[in-house]
Amino acid sequence: MDVLIRRSLVIFQCSLTLLSEPVRGSMCLNGPCQPGNEFCGAPFENAPKFHLMDQHGCGENDPNGPVFDPVHGVIHHFYQIHLAADGGHGPNYGHFVSKDFINWAQLPVAIWNGFDSSVWPPKKTPYDSQAIFTGSAVIVDGAGPGGKGPGVVNIYPGLCNQNKQDWPSCQTGTLLAQAIPADYAGDALLTNWTKPDYNPIMENTERDPSTPWKLPNGEWRLRTYNGMYGAASDADFLAGKWYELNNSSPFRTCECPSLYPLPPPTPGFEKEYEVAAQQGSLPTHVHKTSCSGDWWQLGTYDAGAPKTTGNFTATPGWEDLYEQQRIDQGAYYASKDNEYPSKDGKPRRINWGWAQIAPQSAQTLPRIITFNPVARCLEQAPLDELMGLRGDAVYAGRDLKLGDISHIDLNLASGVARQSEVVLDFALPQEAVTFGISIASGADTLDCYIAYEPPSDGAVTFYKVPVTCGKYKDTLRLVPKDTSVQLRIYVDNTFSEAYFQSGRVAMTVPQATLGADTRMALFASGPTLVQSATV
């Protein structure tokens, strides 16, 4: 499916390593970076086009506070943008908006280090003078326009100056603060964010506040890298009245934590999910962290008494899911999730990741998280709305037979393959066979494939087969009722996102910049039926 979306891209002249250096702000095209001057360089010629990527020419990293605004019906995606106002080193909060997950607009920087840009002249905020690191957004009742109804609140880690020149109580170098829309009713895209006078809400903390979660008793809790904090009610939350809950000992100490309820069932496995749910045996929550990769584990969360950390333990009968499982074996890190409404209004959990790819990183495609109780794993499928990226198919084949011939060249027109979506459905062979696709440009070749071997025991609940994409490897869980396996790849100039079996395995795979000569070919080591192949 040839992708229609095109975006202009701009170049960032500094590298991520500079962020740790004490500098006096960043230099943008027209002098020091500040509101109204936040472009760092010239547009890129060869870069991802249909993935979200900073359009200011300032490199990027973690997704921050992805959220759906229920007031204006707008999807917001914040991210770490590599620039800083005078006195800091950055990063700050970049900002994209959309109504449909397909068409996006880049807005000005939402939250700056060292001042509140919602007023002019900007109001100084010395407690976050150095940077605005990775935070979260959440919907709180009473945060809407005029203090009525649900609305968005951003919670972020502000970096203060540890030499205490401008914030004397700065000891750890990090604190927590909140930002809210400056004109909720009149600013439909929430371009202006203000920092309430009660900030900071907690001092001398660590980084990476999770999306807060609300307990049945009304108490809010959130995790940081190594701690946990609470607010007694919606009103206290909105007044910045938080308290420390000792530490988060039941949870793994890592970056970018998240805790959320067990997602809905993977399509096709609703019956098995419902049976387990009725028996009361399912895990209750997912706990996600980032430590040398992104990981999640499933278990039972007991909130405990008010003002305690609660407990997170293995669920009887599902103890294997308490072990850490890698979310994406590729160049993927610091993922951030939140709950969004689906087209029919039902809630769904969507996850975004930082794609560590050329030329200056990007955001992965949004992935919907579901639970497969038969394969005993979480799945992460590309969002259904992404089908809206498709144009007319440039290749469509059915019942293609590999074996007598070892490969089939798809013979795509010049320039098509380097920015495309390919969907392949393979019938599961009766014998051990390796099958997949090669994506090549010049001397560079990316092979994505399944090394299939039929299960030796027909009574197994699931079995594992090795899958590979480039240098990255994982194992794919197949269940007895699977008669085919799907490989879906989004190719976007400098990297690909590969999804095996609707996201039971996902990989973010960097590539050398693909040229107009990029070509695709199917291959197999033995008799294999390709039920359908579409580009």
Summarize the structure.
It is built from two helices and 39 strands. The chain is mostly beta strands and 535 residues long.
Sheet with most strands: strand arrangement: 28-39-30-35-36-37
Distance between the termini: 5 Å
What do the pLDDT scores average to? 93
What is the gyration radius calculated from CA atoms? Answer: 24 Å
Low-confidence stretches: 1-23
What is the quaternary state of this protein?
single chain
For the secondary structure, the number of strands is: 39
Q: How many helix segments?
A: 2
Instruction: Summarize the amount of helix as a percent range.
Output: under 10%
Beta-sheet strand percentage?
35-45%
Q: Helix- and strand-based class? A: mainly beta
The gross shape turns out to be globular
Largest sheet: 6 strands, antiparallel
How would you describe what is shown here?
The chain is mainly β and 535 residues long. 3% of the residues lie in helices and 42% in strands. The protein has 2 helices and 39 strands. The strands form 9 sheets. Strands 28-39-30-35-36-37 form a 6-stranded antiparallel β-sheet, with no helix packed on it. Strands 29-38-31-32-33-34 form a 6-stranded antiparallel β-sheet, with no helix packed on it. Strands 9, 10, 11, 12 and 13 form a 5-stranded antiparallel β-sheet that branches. The longest helix is centred in the middle third of the chain and has 9 residues, at 270-278. The chain is globular and about 75 Å long. The model is unreliable at 1-23 (pLDDT under 50).
